[in-house]
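Reviewers of the previous submission asked for a worked example of the structure-prediction workflow described in the proposal, so we include one complete record here. The input consisted solely of the amino acid sequence. No template or homolog information was supplied to the procedure at any stage.
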Amino acid sequence: MSRDDLLLTNMKIVTSVVNEVVAQSPDTVLMPVTNPLDAMAQRAFQVSGFPKQRVVGMPDILDTARFRTFLAMERLDVSVESIDAWVLGGHGDSMVPVVGSTIVGGQPISKLIPKGRLDAIVKRTQDGGAEIVNYLKTGSAYYAPSLPPSSRWSRPSSSTRSRLSLAPPTSKASTDRRTLRRSPGQAGSERRGRDHRVRPHRRRIGRPLQRSADAVRELVEVMDNANG
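From that input alone, the workflow returned the following structure tokens.
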């Protein structure tokens, strides 16, 4: 079953759960891990009425960790901690690993790995969830996504990672100033009321990122229409 096939069923589940969580723990931080993740994070944000700092999607750290891991596996002889990279866009086929801004030990990744291999790594990152599910055969890969973002939140890092945040009104990726999107920043900085941003190569990722934003927006619109 694709992520999108789960949309309306999981929308109802997330709505019910968020309502109960908010009623019992009004000061909590919500970190959805339900697919389709971007749409469910948006739903949790809408239903909870929480400020943006307290609804945080998890694909940022998960997809970026996969991307960095696959890069490190390419006989680079470095730790994933030495790879400066991030993944933008939605959690799924439309995600955008930012190859042009990926740095390993001060060198652009394009100087260390041939383009053909980089393209294959990008594709593997996009299909990472399906790969794990295929290994498991049954059940879910929920346990892997759950730990990294929660630990990152409890121990804020100065390193730059992407995470779901509210798109600014001027963003071309959003016509709605209340739409969540994934953007680079420091995980945990939301608690302190600061928003850290970096500027990736816009010309290289602009169109893919726009397509990714459009795909997420379509899911949100389906949910909005279903709710009348």
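Confidence is low (pLDDT under 50) at residues 160-178, 186-198. We consider this example representative of the routine output the project will generate in years two and three.
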